[in-house]
Write a structure and sequence with these properties.
This protein is α+β, with helices and mostly antiparallel strands and 344 residues long. It is built from eight helices and 20 strands. The strands form four sheets. The chain has a seven-stranded mixed β-sheet with strand order 5-2-1-6-7-9-8, with helices on both faces. Strands 10, 11, 12, 14, 17, 18 and 20 form a seven-stranded antiparallel β-sheet that branches. The protein has a four-stranded antiparallel β-sheet with strand order 13-19-15-16, with no helix packed on it. α3 crosses α4. 50% of the residues are buried.
């Protein structure tokens, strides 16, 4: 179906500026850097303490993730002319040698500063392997995070330079800092140009609307298969085999949020057998109510306003459907997903 059929106009994001939007700016800049041929021949690697996804950077090719702690979910990437494959994620705690191997061979390294100083020390130690291999590095996060203090040695080792990041904070190796430009990460012209390029090349459906210097509204329409976080291998295999963003047999689903900033989301839920207003919606431990639910021949269109996700928390939206809405002879699934974020 076409998104033109989706009821209701996109809802404006009326939220205050949040430092968590630096993650969206980092995604935009990293995708731009890769398109410009910056970095080495290896796949980019993102170092983080929690489960995240960077859809724009991932649209440019293979992307690997190194996570400080254990991996609690399985998620997927799309494969041309094939079934979805598991997204490359490595736990530094459980697979330290593989984590180091990925970092030494990376073409670009992005490091999300964690809230915990002890976790930051682990990530700094891992990032030093990338720095030793002369991998370009971008360090970013909210400026108030305690984890920043653990990166002083890495900043000196890699000769990182501060770059403008709006309400966030960022530092980059010399080559990347030169590419950033005077507007820093929050370059609205670069964001608009990238959105147009990705859409024309059919690499991502991203609309960027400038709201002023250093402020944009991002509207991303994305294949929901890229967002399903399966807590059980059985569901992960079902998603891979069917190529659909499935709920499990009990009507539960967890979806990765493209960025940690506050957002509005619109989801098409298919194969629901009853009204879904009695279901549960949560981000972390925060329970939410839907803004609206519209029922059509295509399924239920769900609209939700989502809070920002703090550092150290998985960027996950959890959905639980009422029991009578779950089919006994199949699975509900997410047929389409759209996220709108204001980044500043």
């Amino acid at each position: 179906m076409s998104w033109l059929d989706l009821p209701g106009a996109p809802m404006p994001v009326a939220v205050p500026a949040q430092a968590s939007a630096v993650e969206a700016w980092a995604d935009i800049f990293a995708a731009h850097a890769v398109r410009q041929g910056q970095g080495g021949a290896g796949a980019p690697v993102v170092l983080t303490d929690a489960m995240r996804v960077m859809p724009l950077l991932e649209s440019q090719g293979p992307l690997a993730w190194v996570q400080a702690g254990p991996l609690r979910y399985v998620d997927h990437v799309l494969v041309a002319h094939g079934q979805p494959a598991w997204r490359p994620r490595v736990s530094a705690e459980q697979q330290p040698a593989e984590a180091v191997r990925l970092l030494r061979r990376a073409g670009l390294c992005l490091l999300a500063v964690p809230a915990s100083r002890s976790t930051a020390q682990v990530l700094a130690g891992l990032a030093s392997h990338a720095v030793a291999a002369k991998v370009p590095l971008l360090l970013y996060g909210a400026p108030s995070l305690a984890g920043w203090a653990a990166f002083d040695g890495l900043v000196r080792q890699a000769a990182l330079q501060p770059v403008e990041a709006g309400a966030g904070r960022a530092m980059a190796s010399a080559g990347l800092a030169g590419l950033v430009g005077p507007a820093g990460l929050c370059d609205t012209e670069r964001a608009v140009a990238l959105g147009q390029q990705l859409t024309r090349a059919r690499q991502a459906d991203l609309h960027v609307e400038p709201l002023g210097p250093g402020r944009v509204q991002l509207r991303l329409r994305i294949d929901p298969v890229l967002l399903v976080a399966a807590g059980a291998s059985t569901l992960a295999h079902h998603v891979a085999n069917e190529g659909r963003a499935l709920f499990n047999s009990r009507g539960l689903a967890s979806l990765l949020l493209p960025w940690a900033a506050p957002s509005r989301v619109r989801l098409l839920l298919r194969n629901v057998r009853a009204r879904i207003e009695g279901g549960e919606i949560a981000v972390g431990d925060r329970r939410l109510e839907p803004d609206a639910v519209d029922y059509t021949e295509h399924g239920a269109f769900l609209r939700i306003s989502l809070p920002g996700v703090p550092a150290g928390r998985d960027a996950l939206l959890h959905l639980s459907l009422p029991r009578d809405a779950v089919p006994g002879d199949g699975f509900c699934d997410v047929g389409a997903a759209e996220f709108t974020v204001e980044a500043s």
